[in-house]
Structure formats: structure tokens, C-alpha cells
Amino acid sequence: MSEFPTKQWSVAGLNRLLRKTDTTGSAERRPGQDRKRSVRTQENIDNVGDLVLSQDNNPQTHRTQREISRELGISRGSVNRIVRRDLRLQCFKKRKASELTAANKLVRLERARELLKLYPPSLVNFIFFTDEKVFTVARPSNSQNDRCCRYDEKEYSSLSPAHFSRSVMVSVGVSVLGVTELHFVNPGIKINRQFTGTLF
Q1: Which of 56, 112, 161, 196 has the most other CB atoms within 10 Å of its CB?
Q2: In DSSP terms, which residues pair with 173 in a beta bridge?
């Protein structure tokens, strides 16, 4: 103990170790001495792995840890330890976001080209496309319980839960000459040709 003070060994622990080495000739655990796993078996690990992750061609089919616990008949703590220690998955809170996929961009490009065929080149510069989009800031869900597991270590932030969806409407126009400024529409305003209000 004086030779290795950083080990923080105790006299009782060293005595047990010395008796064990004198009796067995080794400090290793004897076969069968460890506590056998009763829940975190390979079968349960495989079952939890199938349920906690969505299938490749069938999204949103994953189960929550409570649902897995009820279905497999094991405690939620054991399910959590299997997910974290055996499967090495990380749990993330879901967050809704607006996304423009590659397929959406391709469809819009094809439709724009078809639309250009209807007008002569002299009028193209005077054509403006305007539209409004509602962006959801927070959806009405309990983000504390709405989670998913994945093998990605990237962290995702979560918006605070709300009882009602909080959203904002944004209006913008675009043409060959450029893009207009973003206009945030006041709640309750409908944009049409009779609109006489103000945007901010």
C-alpha cells in the first residue's frame, strides 16, 4: 500500500487477494463465479434491437421503451440498459423541420421549364412568382416522451413542448431579376388580391 498509494487499496482487500492467490494460484475469477445474466440475454438484445429501430423500408415503426417493456415482459430499466450498453444506441428527441428534398427540387425545375415555354423571352424578366409558407416553430406534442434511437452521435436540440402549434407565415417573391425581401405575415391575415394590410 505504501508502494502504490494512488491505487487506494485497503488492507482487507489485499488480504483477500493474497488468500486467493495462495489458494488458487491466480487472481482471476473462477469459472461460473460471475452472476449470470437473466434478462440481458442475446435473445432479448436481438428482440430489443428489432423493436427500438424502424425498419429500412418502413419508417415510424419503432417502439418506445415502455412499449418494448410491455411486449417482451422485461423491466424498462433493463430495456434502457440494453439500448445504451449492449446496442450502444443514443436516444434523441424528435424535432419537426421544413425540408426540400432532391425529388421536390427536380419536380419544380421540370415544371418551371414547362412554364417558360408558354411565354416569349421578352416577358420572362417581368414574371414574378410569389408565395406564402407557414413554418411550424413548435408542434403540439410532448417532446419528453417522443424520442427515437439511432447510431449517430450527432446531437440534436429540441424545441420546448407546446399545447398548440406555434407557427409563422413568410411571404417572398422571386424572378429572373432577383428575390424580394422576406415578409412576415401577421396572424389571421389572408393574402389575396383584395389584401390592403401591411406586412412586417
Answers
A1: 161
A2: 130
In this prediction the pTM is 0.41
Per the domain annotation, does 8 fall within a domain? no
Do 32 and 55 fall within a single domain?
Answer: yes
106 and 154 co-located in one domain? yes
36-41 LR contacts (CB < 8 Å, sep 24+): 39/74, 39/75, 39/78, 40/78, 40/81, 40/82, 40/85, 40/86
Q: Which of 30, 64, 88 is the last residue of a domain?
A: 88
In a domain, 31, yes or no: yes
